[in-house]
Amino acid sequence: MKMLRLGVNIDHVATVRNARGGAYPDPTRAALLAEAAGADGITAHLREDRRHIIDSDIENLMESLVVPLNFEMAATEEMQAIALRHKPHAVCIVPEKREEKTTEGGLDVAADDNRLADFIAPLREAGCRVSMFIAADQAQIEASHRIGAPVIELHTGAYCDFHAEGRFEERDAELARLTEMAAYAHSLGLEVHAGHGLTYDTVQPIAALPSVMELNIGHFLMGESMFVGMEAAIKEMRRLMDEARQS
């Protein structure tokens, strides 16, 4: 199997910064530490309400990073213009609601395929690798393929939540769905990524899926870094991913 890439999301360093205002802690510094610790890419979600990452963070990340930036964004004209100005390596289109604490569920590509096809076309023409953040659902995978998105990212939040709540039969059913749909997407020629809510306890079954090429993990790693440091947190996640991939 090909090596599994790890994208580290640094949004919640900005959450801590914004709780007090000012410039500390700096998300770009966290991104550079993650890069040095072995992250294959950095993910940052510029929300419409700017609740964590802000515009200047994206500018600083684009100027500072050696590894690719994965720019998460809603499918709005404002965000499209920002992405086209910066031309990050990757753009991940996510659903966004102002009242949510974090991204809830996947994007409904099937219900909005014509608009989304037009929306992602200039991003692809600008050289961005476009991915659609979706649930492990056949209709959403087929719609993502139909509109010309080369990549999908499967939402692993339900799988992780079931595990945390001790609902293991439901967890296993969701894992089976993720397994089946990752393989199906790969059969269509899509590159498959996965993420949301992954921890040391839940990452290995997802990392073991041969069709998955990249995991994007943020909240858990930023929280664990408060206790053990960025390098140790990321290296342990990498170890678990590699162990699962090789078994």
In short:
This protein has about 250 residues and is an alpha/beta fold. About 50% of the residues lie in helices and about 15% in strands.
Task: Name the overall outline.
Answer: globular
Q: Assess the beta-strand content as a share of residues.
A: 15-25%
Radius of gyration: 17 Å
Low-confidence segments, ≥5 residues, pLDDT <50?
none
Please work out how many helical segments DSSP would assign: 11
Structural class: alpha/beta
Number of strands: 8
Summarize the helix and strand pattern as letters: EHHEHEHEHEHEHHEHEHH
Relative helix content: 40-55%
List the strand order in the largest sheet.
1-2-3-4-5-6-7-8
Question: What number is the mean pLDDT?
Answer: 94
Measured between the Cα atoms of the first and last residue, the distance is 11 Å
Main β-sheet description: 8 strands, parallel, barrel
Sum up the structure in keywords.
247 residues, alpha/beta, 8-stranded parallel barrel, globular
Structural notes for this entry:
- The chain has eleven helices and eight strands.
- The chain is α/β, with parallel strands linked by helices and 247 residues long.
- An eight-stranded parallel barrel has the order 1-2-3-4-5-6-7-8, surrounded by seven helices.
- Helix 2 packs parallel to helix 3, helix 7 packs antiparallel against helix 8 and helix 10 crosses helix 11.
- The longest helix is centred in the C-terminal third of the chain and has 20 residues.
- The chain starts with a strand and ends with a helix.
